[in-house]
Write a structure and sequence with these properties.
The complex is a heterodimer of chains A (378) and B (197). Chain A is α/β, with parallel strands linked by helices. Chain A is built from ten helices and 14 strands. In chain A, the strands form four sheets. Chain A has an eight-stranded mixed beta sheet with strand order 1-4-8-5-11-12-13-14, sandwiched between helices. Chain A has a two-stranded antiparallel ribbon with strand order 2-3. In chain A, helix 9 links the parallel strand 13 and strand 14. The longest helix of chain A has 16 residues. Helix content of chain B is 31%, strand content 25%. Chain B has seven helices and eight strands. An eight-stranded mixed beta sheet of chain B has the order 3-2-1-4-5-8-6-7, sandwiched between helices. Classes of the chains: A alpha/beta (378), B alpha/beta (197). Chains A and B meet through helix 9, strand 14 and helix 10 of A and helix 3 and strand 3 of B.
Amino acid sequence: MSTPPGSVGVVTPQLLRFDSPLQLSSGAAIGGYSLMFETYGELNASRSNAVLICHALNASHHVAGVYIDDESSLGWWDNMVGPGKPVDTNRFFVVGVNNLGSCFGSTGPMSIDPASGKPYGASFPVVTVEDWVNAQARLADVLAIERWVAVMGGSLGAMQALSWTIQYPERITHCVAIASAPKLSAQNIAFNEVARTAIRSDPDFHGGDYYAHSTVPKRGLRVARMIGHITYLSGEDMAEKFGRAMREADYQFHYEIEFEVERYLRYQGDKFTEYFDANTYLLITRALDYFDPAKATNGDLVAALAPARAKFLLAAFTTDWRFPPERSREIVEALIDNGRDVAYAEVDAPHGHDAFLLDDFRYHRVVRAYFDNIAQAL
Amino acid sequence: MTARPLRVDLQQIADWVRPESRVLDLGCGDGALLAHLREHKRCRGYGVEISDDQVAECVRSGINVIQANLDAGLRMFADAMFDTVVLSQTLQAMHNAEGILREMARVARQGVVSFPNFGHWKHVVSLLAGRMPVTRHIPYQWYDTPNIHLCTLKDFEMLAAKLGLNITGRAVFANGSGVTMLPALRAALAVYRFETR
């Protein structure tokens, strides 16, 4: 089987069972749970080269490589992680983990609740970024990784990386936060709420217990994804990709697909409903809404980041209107106020928020440079 | 790590920075000065740089570089946060040269500025011959130069006085070595140190 050049090749996910309950931010606890994860590269003898990659809304533990039975299953950050890639698996031991509440094998709303013998559905507890980080720390314990040389993520993944520096300052040397924000804006929350309303008002939602009805709130999830997708792209990028290009030569005076952008959004929406769980969408967008490390310090981000001891790389994209550069600069400013080591790159890439997943040369060069510098100190 | 010798004005600047102090380098390029200060004087600090290429170089060297346009100001930095703030060979390219000097005075007790001396005799000769000067320190044609605020030593000293900046040191160079006689005409490059009054 062929893999793209520079890919880690065929990978195998692992499932790890945790039997002791995890205390959650909400006050609830989750009894036993499992986490799916993958690893790439070799852990060195001093166990000092481990990098944790945190995923955003719709991704998973499958960061790089392909599965043996599915050539199309390329990891979501394969352009970033692999041999000779910016996060070079010849030098680093890289771990990808699927977060609690997600729908790619880790315990989530689709899983069977041992208490009832039925899927959790609506009863799955609301979890936060902090809860995820606690769960990731337990995974690190099992892997005998006392300290990550770097925790890295984009978007919601970056929030987890940031939270690591606050929750476990002694267990993270470098934090790499791409296209990040210290908390969501009202506009960000508003988009999430529209997406959730689309899902929750789908007649097939059944209050979140749709598994019992053998249905899926596909229509709502599809709309949620369409809305989300618009916020991931820049207006410039959409204009470039689609403009007002049409399917037919002229208007057909109906409500089916007229414009290419409609076709694209419908396609993205449909594809999403094939693999993503609606309850997970609710849960993860809520975790985004709730993320606000400065909430505990009366809105003072400088104070919130005071416990951090890591060194930081932040990068933001000029055309990202979901988490624009100003949001990353808020974090940078608070880190400078704390006297922390921080580098900040503002990449003039045209692809909006999605740029963090793409391989813009300037973006990848600065991440590579950062990891080269980390590798020198290993 | 950086075995390369520092540019002459950067060496002068480095000599004026106290060991173990906090430094902000505006227009820090590839981070050579900050790397030098980190290694030889155990200084800590940040650089600000706009160029993608230079930012990547800084990151590779482990320099705390912030990619930003200096004309947008130094909002990220709090008052009196640094011991020394450096602006090397950048003042002449600033849209708001006066504004950046005010900001420098805000964020640090001591400022150091280097710039090409427009009053250098070669420039004067060129102007007398009817042409805008093109030299090693100002190597651009008039129509493509980033240097929009060129000044002479005296011009800078007058602006410093107007802004209440107390000049505490001056070093002038030509062809990589110090100039003592007739600096106003013979200096190709000037380095000033000032304190906020």
